[in-house]
Amino acid sequence: MSDAAVVGATLETGSPEPEAATEPRGVLEVDDVAVEFDTDGGRITAVDGVSLHLATGETVGLVGESGCGKSTLARAILQLVPMQRGSVRLEGTDLGALPRRELRRMRHRIQMVFQDPRGSLDPRMSVSTLIGEPLRVHGIGDRASRARAVAEAMELVGLPTAVADRLPSELSGGQQQRVGIARAIVTDPAVLVCDEPVSALDVSIQAQIINVLDELRDELDLAMLFIAHDLSVVRHLSDRVAVMYLGQIVETGTASEVFTEPRHPYTQGLITSVPRADAESAARLQTARRLVLGELPSLLDPPSGCRYRTRCPYADDECAATEPPPEAVDHTDGLHSLRCHHWRDIAAGSGARPSSNSQEHAP
Amino acid sequence: MGVTVAKRAGEDPARTSEHGVWGRLIGMLGSRGWILLVLFLVLLVAASIVPDVFAPHDHESQNLRSRLLAPGESSSEGLHLLGTDSLGRDLFSRMVVGTRLTMFIAVTATLIGAAIGVLFGLLGGYFGGRTDRLLMRLGEAQTAMPMFLVAILLLSLLGPSVGILLVVLPCLVWPIFARVVRAEALRLREETFIEASIATGCSTSTILGRHLLPNVAPRILVLCVVEIGHVMLSEAGLSFLGVGVQPPDTTWGLLISEGRPLLAVAWWLTILPGVLLGITVLVLNLLGRYWEARSGAAG
């Protein structure tokens, strides 16, 4: 990751950074995006004011529990669900403001890999037809050059030429996901959004797919938004990490910072809850159990103030009263920021003692 | 037979899903039975294309000396397998020759109806909302109207002709296609691969034509087979009432109609074309349902 990329890649939630306009901007700029849905129980805000920027060649990992709005954010970026507010700029073009036809023409610059490899492939199309479809619908090249591009993409993702005429149902899960990836990169996009691309696959296959993505990113200079709930996968791939909780980004920073020195209690809980085969494991899991309490609250009735307070061992009255604004961690040039009233105290070890009483703060 | 059904059903779980008369009939077919059904249809198609090969006599040659011969009797011209009519024309030959128009009207009208129904069903199912409500109300309105009476009215106003039959008969079947296709489109549009094709940059017409249509095609084909039988019955009905096909053209329905006044003296003139029509409709139904059960098991 280049330095310029880091500078242009400030990631925050809420108010835009003052100097943002003068800085080199990212290939993908997501600003203050909110997505609302009507459900049976009422209207929910699945994504609430998320901003993040990606530079060319950069990978941002987006982590969070199921239901925190990661996939919805991905769909909002691709303009597959309508946004209530905010903007998504791809190479300087505001996708949300484009008429449908223009948006369609832009789509080959931003592509997506889906969670369910089999479901994302038309069951009646052959592998080569599927991979060639983006080229065909965007009118890129003639028949012969498209065939070459498809063969090239298949080679890049490690698909044997023998499967070109097969149907998706005749492939293994890993091969299906390789088809999904080949289809996403065949148009040489600037941005690739991967929505949990390996969580539906066998563990043995996951590493292979991760490696494919890893190589492609370097080879094609892709900006990649990698969504996952598996932290080890994210750690391996990402330059930067954003942690999402109940529709908001609660902490963001470079991958090494966030993983070695998580500041937000939720991030701390997530990271310590990763089981590891070492002596510390048991102790860490104990800590994790204290750090992330209970269940994810309902989006129908999000907690007042800090959204994490109902599960946070450090929560107090201030957390219930006011929503913590995104705050930059000192000495990181704004690269590491989080939303927590008490992170300094927690870091200093003087935060409220984690206790079972903390549940009383819940409404 | 019960044992056979149980055994067959054990082999193919798809067949247990369909109970009642159809399930039992399909059970009787076994795993190879559909070949017989297809063979029967192939014969019908062949008879439509080259009737001379199948017809033993000229279907129009009259011979008053060999009027109303019963099936199996012979005249100076030879054996009349299915007897002769009041003008001495060979019934079997007339049935063979009538096959062409019967098949042509049924197949063409079904295809026209299918085309309309599939288009409306895809649009309604994929877009939903107002488009869907409008198209489905249209279908319901038409289903609610006694279309057979409307058809009779139209045909008696405009004069019976094959052309008008090809307008009236598709109206009977398109709502059925629209309903089935709409239900499938509603289900499919929630699939990730449709979302993926939007993300890829496919236009709506590409999604409808290249993704939705191929995925509903097997069901449409099955429905076509069944509906051809129904359209055939409707055409026979209209022809029987005198507002369908007119002589000297002939269809099975018209043969039934022509035989009706003589039912007491020459039963074969009405019954035999009727039996042929009945068997054909049954075969089409069985084949359609058999394929449906099979594709249900595969998918």
Number of strands of chain B: 2
Supply the number of structural domains of chain A: 2
* Portion in strands of chain A: 15-25%
* Order of strands, widest sheet of chain B: 1-2
Which secondary structure elements does this structure contain, and how are they paired or packed?
The complex is a heterodimer of chains A (363) and B (299).
Chain A: H1 3-8, E1 28-39, E2 42-54, E3 59-63, H2 70-77, E4 85-90, E5 93-94, H3 100-106, E6 110-113, H4 127-137, H5 143-156, H6 173-185, E7 191-195, H7 203-220, E8 223-228, H8 231-237, E9 240-245, E10 248-254, H9 255-260, H10 265-272, H11 281-291, H12 317-321, E11 327-328, E12 337-338, H13 343-348
Helix pairs in contact in A: 4-5, 4-6, 5-6, 6-7, 10-11
Chain B: H1 2-11, H2 13-16, H3 20-29, H4 33-49, H5 51-54, E1 74-75, E2 78-79, H6 91-127, H7 129-144, H8 147-158, H9 162-188, H10 192-200, H11 204-240, H12 252-259, H13 268-298
Antiparallel strand pairs in B: 1-2
Helix pairs in contact in B: 4-6, 4-13, 6-7, 6-9, 6-11, 7-9, 8-9, 9-11, 11-12, 11-13, 12-13
Explain the overall architecture.
The complex is a heterodimer of chains A (363) and B (299). Chain A has helices at 3-8, 70-77, 100-106, 127-137, 143-156, 173-185, 203-220, 231-237, 255-260, 265-272, 281-291, 317-321, 343-348, and strands at residues 28-39, 42-54, 59-63, 85-90, 93-94, 110-113, 191-195, 223-228, 240-245, 248-254, 327-328, 337-338. Chain A has 363 residues and is α/β, with parallel strands linked by helices. Chain A folds into two domains: 3-238, Rossmann fold, CATH 3.40.50.300; 255-361, no CATH class. By secondary structure, chain B is mainly α. Chain B contains 13 helices and two strands. A two-stranded antiparallel ribbon of chain B has the order 1-2. The longest helix of chain B is centred in the middle third of the chain and has 37 residues, at 91-127. Chain B starts with a helix and ends with a helix. The interface between A and B is medium-sized, with 24 and 16 residues.
